[in-house]
């Protein structure tokens, strides 16, 4: 695979630079002065058929401290209530920015949230729509991240009983995670590791359907309530958001 560079008149700036694809769809191309357009070709002698404009998305400092990457949403069931609650809950936990994926985006849109968030957010939560991170000692997720990952610089990911999230550093860029799946880091850069929390420290409230299959043993289940100090605020925020988007029923 070769990176091809072109000036403002779309004349090629030689030489082309040999590169590679990782893991399956991203090509690493270095920056080049005076390059206004870029393309990639499989062979050095291939002609570039399509071009894209070069957009410098680098940041001197991350714009946000803590963001959330929502995994793609599937299925035909209604998701508006869960989405509104997810946003408002995580805002209460200190999340500042949300990366949301929608269907039928243009071909050039970068849908890899790990790559998209590099340099834009210092820490990123990878989470499903039906999950909530909830520290058990009345601290926020933002405070938890600051007390752990900012303190021990060798930790590139912290995980909870049902969720894991990772971070990227401010420049000079020092990446800790190479490949990220929804709930776990697949490949770390050398020298980095995972920190796993216990249920006594943090729990994930994972919403499941009440339409249970078969005859489950209910003695294995516990009746736990959402923290009272958060419930009223969360309910009000969700109600305000839904009324703003869909209009009040009154």
Query: What letter string, H or E per element, gives the SSE order?
Result: EEEEEEEHEHEEHEEEEEEH
Largest β sheet strand count, sense and barrel closure? 6 strands, mixed
The whole-number mean of residue pLDDT values reads 81
Kindly state the number of beta strands.
Answer: 16
Strand content: 25-35%
The number of distinct helices, counting runs of at least 4 residues, comes to 4
Radius of gyration: 22 Å
InterPro entries: Glyco_transf_92
Organism: Ancylostoma caninum
Keywords: Glycosyltransferase, Membrane, Transferase, Transmembrane, Transmembrane helix
Protein name: Glycosyltransferase family 92 protein
Topology record:
Blueprint: E1 2-6, E2 12-18, E3 21-22, E4 26-27, E5 37-41, E6 52-53, E7 64-70, H1 80-92, E8 97-99, H2 113-117, E9 121-127, E10 131-135, H3 141-148, E11 155-159, E12 164-167, E13 177-180, E14 185-188, E15 193-196, E16 202-206, H4 228-246
Helix pairs in contact: 1-4
Structural features, described:
- The chain has 250 residues and is an alpha+beta fold.
- It has two domains: 2-53, no CATH class; 64-246, no CATH class.
- Helices cover 18% and strands 28% of the residues.
- The chain has helices spanning 80-92, 113-117, 141-148, 228-246; strands at residues 2-6, 12-18, 21-22, 26-27, 37-41, 52-53, 64-70, 97-99, 121-127, 131-135, 155-159, 164-167, 177-180, 185-188, 193-196, 202-206.
- The strands form five sheets. The chain has a six-stranded mixed β-sheet. It has a four-stranded antiparallel β-sheet with strand order 2-1-5-6, with no helix packed on it.
- β7 (64-70), α1 (80-92) and β8 (97-99) form a beta-alpha-beta unit.
- The termini are far apart.
């Amino acid at each position: 695979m070769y990176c091809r560079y072109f000036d403002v008149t779309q004349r090629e700036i030689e030489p082309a630079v040999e590169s590679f694809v990782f893991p399956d769809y991203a090509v690493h191309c270095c920056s080049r002065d005076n390059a206004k357009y870029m393309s990639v070709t499989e062979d050095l002698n291939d002609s570039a058929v399509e071009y894209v404009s070069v957009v410098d998305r680098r940041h001197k400092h991350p714009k946000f401290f803590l963001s959330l990457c929502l995994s793609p949403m599937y299925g035909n069931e209604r998701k508006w209530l869960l989405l509104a609650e997810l946003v408002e809950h995580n805002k209460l936990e200190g999340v500042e920015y949300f990366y949301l994926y929608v269907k039928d985006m243009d071909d050039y849109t970068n849908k890899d949230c790990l790559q998209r968030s590099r340099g834009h957010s210092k820490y990123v939560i990878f989470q499903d729509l039906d999950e909530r991170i909830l520290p058990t000692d009345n601290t926020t997720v933002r405070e938890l991240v600051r007390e752990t990952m900012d303190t021990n610089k060798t930790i590139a990911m912290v995980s909870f009983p049902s969720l894991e999230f990772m971070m990227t550093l401010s420049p000079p860029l020092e990446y800790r995670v190479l490949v990220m799946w929804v709930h776990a880091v697949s490949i770390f850069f050398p020298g980095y590791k995972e920190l796993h929390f216990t249920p006594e420290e943090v729990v994930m409230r994972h919403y499941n359907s009440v339409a249970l299959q078969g005859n489950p043993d209910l003695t294995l289940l516990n009746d736990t309530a959402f923290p009272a100090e958060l419930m009223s605020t969360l309910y009000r925020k969700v109600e305000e958001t839904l009324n703003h988007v869909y209009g009040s029923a009154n």
